[in-house]
User: What shape does this take?
Amino acid sequence: MAKKFPKDFIFGGATAAYQVEGATREDGRGPCVWDDYMNRPGSRFNGDVASDFYHKYPEDLQLAHDFGVNGIRISISWTRILPEGKGAVNQKGIAYYNRLIDECIRQGVEPFVTLHHFDTPLPFFQNGHWLNRDLIDAFVQYAKICFQAFGDRVKKWATFNEPWSIAQNGYIAGNFPPHEQFQIPKAVQMLHNIMVAHARALNLYKSLGLPGEIGIVHTLEGKVAISDKPEDRHACALDDAISNRFMLDACFHGGYDDETMALIQEILEKNNGTLVTESSDFADFAAAARQIDFLGMNYYSSHFLQAYEGESRIYNNSTGEKGTSVFGLKGIGARVTNPAVPTTDWDWPIYPQGMHDQLVRIMRDYPNYKKVFIAENGMGYKDDFVDGKIDDTPRIEYVTRHLEAVLQAIAEGVNVKGYYIWSLMDVLSWSNGYNKRYGLFYIDYRDQRRYPKKSAYWYKLLSERHELVGIDEIQD
Assistant: This one.
């Protein structure tokens, strides 16, 4: 296994607009779906202040610079640019992102900009969300505004962050708005529509002749059959098809492979659904597949699959009460615990092998991928602030094991060009609020002060040396 990372490897930190910015009612910003959802009666938390990145980004970027973080994933809040999702441009929103991008560059922290990170404008969400194809054209118009305003300086663009999470969490698991469960046909249709929006925006970007690269960020969940039984292996193939292959085929093959569609059709038939497409969609897919510059890969965990014939049943562990999760889908399979694999308090299997396997799978099955960035990876942890310090050794151990998997994949020929830890600073978790922390920098939400964690000092050494370093080498 390679010991050192490539010289041009990026050691970055990841964020998302709604999870860090706050300032939800400042400078003309309009409401997105999450503003409505998190401010509903009885909600335990919201993003109105979040990590106050809107005001504190100079401090956060200074910290990034000082601790060797040379890249940052940010997303643009659609409704800061277009308060209604379409129509008149909010120049204060344009000005904010100009300042933010310029400060990134000044600090030597390269911006990697995502156009859509879950925060669909509220009017569009209320009018069918991504089930309404009108949203495709609106997204492309929004993308064009951003490309023209920021494309002279932004050299890395992603159209979407985690289409699968939008569909799965909103319409299958029910822990994202609109809080629907088991609507598997809706989820499949949404994924297709989002892939069309991605393709059209990517093709538009390429037509503008801008000096950067564009791709998409997918969460690639490892899928492993819990046994060698044919029925368990088939359940694994079904879950992989809807979670991974369906979107990867669209992005890199320019359409859906026959085997992929056979699995998707099986899922739809067992759930009384159909997929509606237009012929132009596949022309858009084909053009985008020829031009896509990179894949952003988010990886947190893998699932172990067992055959399951019952009705869909899900329980989301959103409180960190270990061992309470349930996930079985009609027509697909059940995600079950593997006793040999440890889990986080939120029941996410800690399985770095899955990251390696997905990277190798991309190289094998999608050879036109060009390059991969690990766009998110990290560990949610209940950090304890003791005597002004945060010892998050388990996070360091988690990230080390996953970076070892990245190095192994690089040694086997996968072109991985960077790693963006989730997250740069502590952020709002979509379903866990503020008690599940991921950041290199601890935020005291009472006064918004930042404190480097042990992992920040470790990450600094990692970036300086471009090789893995031991916990015993950290001096904080």
